[in-house]
Design a protein that fits this description.
Helix content is about 25%, strand content about 20%. By secondary structure, it is α/β, with parallel strands linked by helices. Strand 5, helix 4 and strand 6 form a beta-alpha-beta unit. Helix 3 packs parallel to helix 4 and helix 3 crosses helix 5. The chain starts with a strand and ends with a helix.
Length: about 400
């Protein structure tokens, strides 16, 4: 890798703290009871008795990382248009809110389609996050020699601080601001991404895999009023209900959870450390170059030798492209030391967990979609982390007490 200068560059979890009944019921009604994909709890498995689940070791001294990500939200949805800067064609690919990883392959496919329209031999990619790497790999597959220009490699980008779960319409746009036809564009991105992610399942290191997720509640979620959404975030999940079955209720006593109400689904998960290593390895193995540099203004991009550029700076687009439409949505995750016997995630009392192999993610989601909106503070909040971990510790104690009784 060569140096050029000094760059361009929970996600919301499934449901808000107050279970979003609208989303749950939408999915259940549309699916009509269809069973899901890998890892689903089946009627046969329930007949063998309660599903025994190991409690998470949510102890303060097991927290080894607290990371903050600024999700790049745009009310109109991701920017996917193209413009000319000097002699260069610049195709934009940023502004995905909490859906960057989830939509990366589909969004990058649309961007690369535009970038390769004139069959350029060489393509530059700005940014080495989720969108930058997938754009670079797809441009390589389309026949171009690709160089990524960025200040940071993936482990140091905001993409590396994401929750790591499949949330393709997480803060993707505002319903009132999305342009006509955006729902169709979103569906195309989601379907392409989901299909591509299947190719990474089963690879060494488990870069992508399915895991069981449980929504736990001490009160009947059907009677819970949905958390308010003053901005009106768009929801498109019904469009891909054939790909992603919704949460469905489990009968009482089906699991070792202490709550009387439990809903289950299987969800795609990204082990970001292994997945990022796989992507970067694939890019370099195909002849890709990484040039460490930092851009401060669009005009600097015109000095590149490549005349086709795919612009994937994530939240960095706000300053690089002077784009005030990019709004920060602060999200914080804590990671507990990996626990091999915990291969499931939960949403419990406003906290969500994801059983990643590079550390169990613990995230406060009590504010719903509006949580962190407009907040550009990237300093970790240790109090927020401690409270979230304590909530999961409480769940573990309740699980242990249930086993004793």
């Amino acid at each position: 890798m060569e140096k050029r200068g000094a760059g361009a560059d929970m996600s919301r979890h499934n449901e808000p703290a107050v279970l979003n009944r609208r989303r749950l019921l939408e999915g259940t009604a549309a699916l009509g009871g269809m069973m899901g994909v890998a890892g689903c709890v089946t009627t046969a498995s329930l007949a063998r008795g309660p599903i025994a689940l190991a409690p998470m070791r949510a102890e303060p001294d097991r927290v080894f990382d607290i990371a903050v990500c600024l999700r790049p939200f745009r009310a109109a949805g991701p920017r996917l248009d193209a413009e000319t800067v000097g002699a260069a064609l610049v195709v934009h690919n940023y502004g995905h809110g909490g859906s960057g990883w989830s939509l990366s392959w589909g969004s990058s496919a649309l961007a690369v389609r535009k970038a390769m329209a004139s069959s350029p031999r060489r393509v530059a990619v700005i940014g080495c996050g989720a969108l930058g790497l997938t754009s670079a790999i797809l441009a390589q597959q389309a026949g171009a020699q690709v160089t990524i220009y960025a200040r940071d490699e993936l482990p140091d980008t905001r993409s590396a601080r994401a929750t790591g779960t499949w949330t393709p319409d997480s803060r993707i746009a505002l319903e009132a601001a999305a342009p006509p036809g955006f729902g169709d564009t979103w569906e195309e991105m989601a379907r392409i991404s989901f299909k591509t992610y299947r190719r990474y399942i089963g690879l060494p290191g488990s870069p992508v895999e399915f895991s069981d997720r449980y929504l736990l509640s001490d009160v009947d979620p059907d009677g819970v009023v949905p958390a308010p959404d003053p901005l009106g975030f768009a929801s498109y999940r019904r469009r891909i209900i054939d790909l992603v079955p919704p949460y469905r209720p489990l009968p009482a006593g089906a699991t070792s959870f202490p709550t009387p109400y439990v809903r289950h689904a299987s969800q795609l998960m990204f082990n970001i450390t292994a997945y990022g290593h796989t992507l970067m390895g694939d890019f370099l193995a195909a002849g890709g170059r990484f040039v460490r540099t930092e851009f401060h203004a669009p005009g600097e991009i015109a000095t590149l030798t490549e005349t086709v550029v795919i612009n994937c700076p994530g939240y960095g687009a706000r300053s690089l492209w002077k784009d005030p439409s990019v709004v920060p949505v602060r999200g914080q995750i804590s990671r507990l030391i990996p626990q091999p016997d915990v291969d499931y995630g939960v949403v419990y009392n406003g906290v969500a967990t994801v059983p990643r192999r590079d550390g169990i993610v613990v995230q406060d989601i009590s504010g719903g979609d509006i949580k962190g909106y407009g907040d550009d503070n990237e300093t970790p909040d240790t109090a927020e982390s401690a409270k979230a971990v304590a909530t999961i510790a409480e769940l573990a104690r309740r699980m242990a007490a249930k086993r004793v009784t």
